[in-house]
Specification:
Helix content is 16%, strand content 14%. It has 145 residues and is an alpha/beta fold. The strands form 2 sheets. Strands 1-3-5 form a 3-stranded parallel sheet. Strands 2-4-6 form a 3-stranded parallel sheet.
């Protein structure tokens, strides 16, 4: 068999019905489009809604851009760390086990909302200034990963 002898399987490419070739063809006169109306004369452009303002013009345009390399942080407040024992080392793994994070490998930012009474060593990716002050006020430490 040569490349020029290749043919599609029988019935794989049915011949299209020729329209507008007289009444004997079965698809004469209106060529299967019915009579009159917008769809008999052509097709309106994509997105045309019969004169109503199209959806793509009704919706507001998005402004600005979303940075591709944005880093998302899971937020934990200092007051939430009160559940740990005194002198404990708090990491993302221990926060995950305590139910503060959805995933154990999330990046964590500690914020300064709430009060802390225990000395803790907290290891996280980011800290707010007030969080560091509250941790140091009770003798704890904030270690940036």
């Amino acid at each position: 068999m040569q490349i020029h002898e290749l043919r599609p399987a029988p019935g794989a490419h049915p011949t299209s019905k020729k329209v507008g070739r007289g009444p004997g063809s079965g698809k004469g006169k209106t060529s299967g489009r019915g009579s009159k109306g917008q769809r008999a004369r052509g097709r309106p452009s994509l997105g045309f809604e019969g004169g109503q303002t199209p959806l793509h013009r009704r919706l507001p345009q998005l402004r600005g851009f979303k940075p591709v390399n944005r880093i998302e942080y899971a937020v934990v407040n200092v007051g939430d760390l009160e559940c740990f024992e005194a002198d404990a080392v708090v990491t993302a793994q221990t926060m995950f086990e305590a139910g503060m994070l959805r995933h154990a490998d999330e990046r964590v930012k500690v914020l300064g909302d709430g009060d802390l009474t225990k000395k803790l060593t907290v290891r996280a990716h980011r800290f707010s200034r007030t969080a560091v002050e509250k941790l140091q006020a009770v003798g704890g430490a904030a270690e940036v990963l």
